[in-house]
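Q: What changes when zinc ion is included in the input?
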Amino acid sequence: MSEPGELPPPVLDEVSPGIYSYVQPDGTWFINNCGFVVGPDQVFVVDATSTEARTKALIAAIRSVTDLPIATLLNTHHHGDHTHGNYLFEGVTIVAHRLCREVMMQAGAIADYSATFPGVNWGDLRFAPPSLTFDGSLDVHVGDLTVQLHDVGHVAHTEGDVVAWVPDRQVLFSGDLVFHGGTPFGLFGSVQGTIEAMERLESYGAEILIPGHGPACSGDAVQAAYDDQRDYFRFVQASAQAGIAAGRNPLEQARETDLGRFGAWTDSERLVGNLHVAYREAGHNDGFDVVAAIGDMIKFNGGNMPRCLA
Ligand SMILES: [Zn+2]
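A: The predicted holo structure follows.
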């Protein structure tokens, strides 16, 4: 198992002329993907990262390609791995879903994760919420290219998920609606809503997918990535039904569950949080509480905090 500093460096790839993916191995807790689109006079960026150092490395990667000003930064959703580094994009318009900003403003500050994820060097993080918000759709024009920002119309990974779709190039930035090779995480959203969001993603017919975590992919692997999300969350729902029928709580049910092929994915303790949500959505978790669910994930991990190498 790797330790902080042992991960391979991020990979910058021009997936289509002027469109770049920035994939951070190994895609586990707080190690997300970003991307950017370089136009004739400005740059559009998809997501910041979790730490000061990682976001500075992202900006350096952009600067390795272009000196043009960064005009716009999209937050695909409010989670810290996608937004902590916002403040390093000085003078940049930060756009997000209205509910993404609302959640961040309710928090009012960067969350202190030092207890849950000890050992991470977050850097000198400063709170920087989005400045431009929308519901539904918003087009960003980067030269001749249109980047369409779309919400999914319901709670999925979070209440304010946005994807960035470039129809002329068939490129989709899905945010955390897709974890590729890692365990999907629905604790801050909806298991059923994420399943339903896959239909929306499929409707774009993307040739190239940059997921929120894990490797980018193209061709048939795009559909396979959507199928994996759906299959996993349906598996979680079936496990929840079995647990409810047997009178087990989510933690007990997680311990009874054989993950099968999903057990090869990283961050498998997310099963516990996902079960908490699936129980709630089945009408069997009146006392649903995110903090308690995270506590159960730690218990499931034998008392260890989730492994975080950010
Ligand atoms: Zn997320």
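Observations recorded in class: Residues 77, 79, 157, 176 surround zinc ion (CB under 6 Å).
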